[in-house]
Amino acid sequence: MRSPGSTGSPSSSWSRSRGGLLATPPESVEKILKEADPEASCASWALRFAASHEGVFVVLSGMNAMEQMADNISFMADFKPLDEGEMETIRKAQETLRSIPIIPCTSCNYCAKVCPMDIGISGSFVALNYYTLYHNMAMSLGRQGWLVDGHGKKRAGECIKCGACEQVCPQHIHIRDELEKVAATLQGEAKGNLRK
Ligand code: SF4
Ligand code: SF4
What does pTM read for this prediction? Predict the structure, then answer.
């Protein structure tokens, strides 16, 4: 979309917005973006941010509806990089996003290779992160059902706390503690015993 930078090689940027996190951000982040420009979609902020970096010549965007394609074309056909004011809005949104205590799991699944119980670790974390971000229990239970149960994995509550997973996690996540939170929050809800 832009000319390659004068000093670097051309590069591509894939807006891997963590399962659509930037395109469908939590309410607190969406508020910042909408206050700055009520007309702009959240996805447009994410894609324009990715495309504004010097040297980026293509940004890939996952789309599954005609409206999304029309929206993308509306701001990419005559692309304008984010100006300083818009970059400040992005910085505020990033700060707010960083303040939300999600589990920094990248779903690399190194832990899955060593878990003797075949616990659905990354899927459990995705599910809990959805709850932390959107406070939507039905959506979080749906993620758990799909990413854990649907993949034949065991749920968080069946962890025997051997610690093998924590030895290989590149993110140094306290997996056992986080799985306890998953079990208390999501599996508690499943039994009609949601932790308050
Ligand atoms: S601590 Fe739990 S999740 Fe981690 S490897 Fe052991 S059984 Fe699996
Ligand atoms: S090793 Fe760590 S970052 Fe990778 S999937 Fe497991 S918990 Fe997530």
Answer: 0.73
